[in-house]
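Example record for the data management plan.
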Amino acid sequence: MLFADIRNSTNLIDSLGDPELGMRRLEPVLDLMKEAVHRYDGIVNKIQGDGVMALFGAPPRPHEDHAVRGCLAALAMQDSVARLADPGMQIRVGLHTGEVVVQTVENTIYQTYDAAGANVHIANRMEQMADEGAILITRDTYLGARQFVEVMPLGMQTIRGISTPVEVFKLTGLLSAPASDVFRSGRRLTSMVNRTEQMAAFEHELSRAVGGDGRVVGMVGDAGIGKSRLCFEFAENCRRKGIRVYEARVLAHGRATPFQPVLELLRDIFGIRAKEPIETSRRRVIDRFAEMAASEQELLVLLEFLGLADPAYPAPKLDPRALRLQLLDLVRTLVHARPGDTPAVVMIEDLHWIDAASEEFVETLVDAIVGTATLLVVNFRPGFTAPFMQRSHYRQIAIPPLPWSNSNELLREHFGRHPSLASLSSNVIERAQGNPFFIEELANTVVERGNVEGERGNYRLKHGVDAVPLPATVQAVVAARIDHLEDIAKQVLETAAVIGRLVAMSVLRPVAALPNDDLQNAIAQLRQAELLYDLPPYDKGLLAFRHPLIQEVAYATQLRSRLTTLHATVAKAIEGFDWGKLDEFAGLLAYHYEAAGQPLEAVTHLQRAARWIGKTNSAEAMKSWKKVRALLQDQPPSEYVNRLRAMSSGQILNFGWREGMSAEEVKPYAEEAIKYARAADPVHEPILLGAYGRILAATAAADDYVNLVQDALKLTSGTGDVGRFATVNAMLSQAFFLSGRLAEALDAGQVAVAAIAEQGGFHNNVTLGLNPNQILGFDVEHWIRCLGTRILVRLGRFDEAERRIAEVLRAEPERFAAVVQFIPHFAMVEMGWSRGRPELAKPHAARIAELAEQSGTPYLRVAALASAGLASGAAGDFKVAAAQLQEAIDFARSARAGLEFEARMLADLAEALYRAADHHAALQAVDEALTVARRRTDRVAELHATVLRGLIICALGSTSHEELDEIVGGAQNLLDVSGAVYFTPQLDQLRLHLERR
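Corresponding structural encoding:
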C-alpha cells in the first residue's frame, strides 16, 4: 500500500483565497502521482483532495515484485514533483507491505477497489510520519525490495494504534548493480548443492565457445530453484580464469521501462558506474568506442541511447525504424569488436519478464555470437519460449528441485543438527519441496520469530512451534501466479485448496457446484499453469497440487467467511461417500468441521479417528484426544459434553503411560476426567480410576495402583455390568503383577476371564455407546490372557506358561495392539533368560524389536532394549547384556516410559554384571535396584535384588554369617508374599553359601 500527499496543502489553498485556484495548483502534482502509480502497474483506489492511496500486487494486477513497484512509484513521484521546480510543492510518501482485504466497489459510472485492515493503517501512518520530500517504508516493504533499493535505517518506531513497534527505513534511491552483486552483498551464502551436472554442462559449452564456436545456453527452472545462484557461481569461475563476464537482469517491472536489460548490459560493457558524473561516463564510452571499427554517427546514437549525449554534439534525428536498425547493428559490432581469441561470457537473467523491444536485441545477440569466442547464458522460468531456442548453437539446461537429502543438507547449514529441530526441519523440507529459496526463507522466518536460540548452524528449539508462517517473499511469488488466473480457474483452485493437498474429483464437483464444462476448462487451465496435476491411476480422477505452498497460498488468501462455508460443504460431501464413513477418514472430517466452526461435529469424528490411530500410534492418538479436550473447553455444559470431557481426559490417561507422562503431568487430566464422570457418567468412573492408577504405577508406586483399582472395583460390585467388572479386574491383575503379588494377580485375571466367558463378550454400554475394548484401545480379554503368561513365568510355572504362550500366539496378531502383542514374547524371553535357553529368548526379542519399530512407542522401545539384553544374557554374552540393559534403563528414564519395570531392569543389569564377574559394578546396580524397588513397591524386583545382593557380597567375600542370614530371611519373606518361584534357584544357591559358613 502506498499513501502520498502534498505537504501543507491546506495552508497553500488558504493562501490563494480561492479553492478553485488551489485545486488548479494541486492538480498537476496529483496527476504526476497517478502517472507514477500507473507506470508501475499499480491501482489508484483513492484520491483524497491533496493525495492518493494506491495498491500494488492486488488483483486484478498481481505482481510478485509488488514491493519493488511501490518503491519505484514513490521515487518516480518525488522525481517528477522535483522537476516542477515549485518549492511550495513538496510531497511525502509512505509504504507498507502486508495482507489486506481487497474488495470491488461498484459505482454508477466506474468500478474501483478498496482495501481494509491494520496494514492499511500502518501504510498511512508511514506517510504521516514522513518529512517533506521523504519516503518512509516499513521493514516488510524493505525485505520485499532490498535487492533493488537503497535505504537509511531509522530504527524501531512506535505507531499510533499498533501495539508493537515497527522498524522503519527512509527510501533514498535505486540500487544500481549487476545481478551478481546480490550475492556479494556481505550476507553469508549457503552451499550450492546437487548442481554438479548443470555446472559441468556450463563448463562444456564454455570450452566450445572459447574455441571459437559461439554458444547459447538457456537455463530453465521454477522461481527460487537457484538459477541466479548457479549463474553467479559459473560467472565467478569464469572471472577466476580471466574471462570477462558481462551481466544484465530483466526486472519484473521491465515492461514499464523498455530496453531496461539492454541499457543495463551496455552500461556493464562500457564500464559505466552508478552515480558517477555524466562527463566521466561519456568519456568511458568514447574511449572504449575508439577501439571499435564504428562510425561517429553510431557513437552519437549510442550516447543518446545511454542518456549520455553531449549537447554540443547531438545525435542525428532518425525515424524510430532507422534508429532501431542502427542500434541492432551496434550490437553486432560490439560482439565482433573484440579480438577473435578473447573469450567473453554474456549473462541475461529472467528473460520471462523481457519486453518486446529488448527481446529483439537478444535475438540479434544470439545470431551475432556465431563464430566468436562468446558464450551467451540466459535463464527463465518454465513456459517462456523464444525463436532463438530453435538455433543449432542453443542448448537448454533444466534445474530440478533438490532431493530430500540435499534439502536437509542445505537446511542444516541454517539450523545445525540439534535433535530438537528434527521435526521442524522435516516440516520445512516437506513444505519447500526441494526449492532452495523457499527452504532459506522458511528457515529465516523461524529464526526471526525467535523460535530457536543459538547461532547460525548451531540452533536449538527454544519452545514448541505450532506452524511456521509463510514468508511474505514466498507468498508474493506464489500469489502472483494464482492471481493471474481467470476468475473461474482461480475459484476452482481455491476450492481445491480447502479440500486438501490431494483433490478427488468426486469431492470437487459437488463442492465447486459448476457446470461440468466450466469445471473441466478450469482444471485444464490449472494443469497448463502447472498448479495442479493428475495422479495415477488416471481413471480415478485424483488431482494434486504441484507444490504444497501453492495450496497454502490459495487457501490463505481467501476470506474466513468463504472458508467456513467451503469446509462445511466439503465435510458434507465426504460424508456422502461410503469411503467417507471409514474410521481412517474420520480425522479428515474432524478437520473440516473444526474449520467450519462446528466443534461438536469435529469432536464426534475426531474421537473416532483417535481410537483408530490409537491401535498403531499412541503418540498421535494422545494428540488427537488432547485436541478433543481443547475443542470442548468452550462448549456449554451438558450431559453429552461432560461425558465427552470425561472420555477425552480419560483417554489421555490411557495413552499417557505409553508415552511417558509423569504422575504430576497426568494429575489435572485425571481429576478432570473423574469430576465429569461423577457428574454425568458414573459408569465410566471405575475405568478412569484404573487408568490413573496405571500411570501411578509407572511413575510413583505400584501399591497406589492396587489401591485405586480396588476402590474402582467397589464401584462395579453388584451392578451386573460385566464389561466394567471384567476390565477393572484385569487392571487389578496388572496392578498386583507390578506390585509383586503374583498369586493375587493370577486370581484377578481368572475372575476377569470367567466374567467375560459367562456373558460371551462385552456390551457397548460403558459410555457413549462404547465397550471397554474400544475405550482402552485393545482387546481386554486377550490382554488378560497375555498378562497371565508373564505372571506364570514369574510364578515358576514354566510348562504351563509355555502352553499359554503358544495359545495366545496362535491368535491373529493384526487384531491386537502392539502393547498387548509384545507381552507373551517378553514372557518367553524372561523364561529363556532364567533357564539359560537362548533359542527361546532370541526370536521373541527380535519380534518385540519389530513391534517397537512399527509402533514407534517409547514404552515398547524400552521393552525391546530390555528383551535384547535378556536374550544376550541367555546366550551367555553377559557384557553385551549389561550394556543393552543399561541402554534400556537410560532410555526409559529419558523418555519417562516403562519406568514401572525400572527396578526389575536394574536387578537384571546387576545379575548380568554379576555373571560377567564385574562384582563391584553389580553391587552398585543391585543397591540402586533395591532403592527403586522399595520406592515403587515392586516386591518381585526387591526379591531379585535381595538375593543378588547376597550372592554378590559372597563373591566379594565381604559378608558375615549374621548379615547373610538376615538377607536370606528377608528374601524368604519376599518370596512368600510375591510367590515368585522364578528366583528360587538363586535363593537356594544363597542358602548354600549360608550353610558353608
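Summary line stored alongside the record: The chain has 42 helices and 19 strands.
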